[in-house]
Amino acid sequence: MKAVVISEAGSAQNLEYRDVPTPKVKEGWSLVKVKGFGINHSEIFTREGQSPSVVFPRILGIECVGVIEQTTDALRLPIGQKVVSIMGEMGRAFDGSYAEYVLLPNDQIYPIETELEWDVLASIPETYYTAYGSFRSLDITDKDEVLVRGATSSLGIAFMKIVKGLYPSVTVTGTTRRLHKAERLRQEGFDDVIVDQDGKLQTNKVYTKIIDLVGPKSIKNSISHLAQYGTICSVGQLGNEWYLNTFDPIIELRGFKKLTSFYSGDVDIQLLNHIIRLIEKGHISNIGPVKVFGLNQIVEAHEYVENEQESFGKVVVIP
User: Fold this and answer.
1) Mean per-residue pLDDT for 101-111?
2) Which of 29, 116, 174, 231 could form a disulfide with 258 if both were Cys (CB 3.0 to 4.6 A apart)?
3) Exposure string for 63-78, b = 16+ CB within 10 A, e = fewer
4) Could you tell me which residues are beta bridge partners of residue 258?
5) Alpha carbon of 279 to those of 1, 120, 239: distances in Å?
6) What's the pLDDT tens digit per position in 87-96?
């Protein structure tokens, strides 16, 4: 089969498109024919060598959509069944989805029923599942005023589309470090855009609900824009910092503020199918990718996602 292999950490140029043996099925694992996957920042971090547990060479890829090609669980995962896989240790402890086929543990394969096109479906797993879980953790209502920090990311846009789809009257503001992206954010559906300059938001406004996709690097500044009794969700960690340092929760969260998060590694099949249903029924619309690449264009896909001047929204690969 064709796959993308990285033999040592480094730039996108280290991703090599080549022939490799198709994985052989083993007990408790099934073979999935990959129909599409999204490019995620965590894969870029791993490619750069920021995942110490990952041993090279490795086929990256923490998510995929596809169909069962060979199965060891014919009852739950019959051949031809449409499936989604997210997280676990795919693309890290074992080879992932940057390939025509991927061998996965059966308990990490989730059967779905959908007629969505593959490029649209490939936009959903990690991005929309995380966005919807974060939406639920924030307990958003139609009375809220929402801020999305890191709005030009695929997760930021997905989160906005969920909020606007389910609560059209809610005002959603997005942030960007690149002013030239402001108009595009408005075109996507954001009501207002704020510049994030040197880690500080250029506004005095406060919001009842905030999702911070930059993570620990910006969380204290984001909390300063959180209204009394408001809630902030830290997820995504696009700022390349993983832990909160010198964070005093008693002081930072005074004013009855609350901090929450969502871990996409805890996959709830009902939650996943619920978000798919909402998209199919049109409650959440225009979710397709901004760019689609072939498997042999994986270098270009990575370079686009990590280009801060150009990158915007969800990028998927269709083998």
Assistant:
1) 96
2) 231
3) bbbbebbbbebeeebe
4) 231
5) 32, 10, 29
6) 888 999 999 9
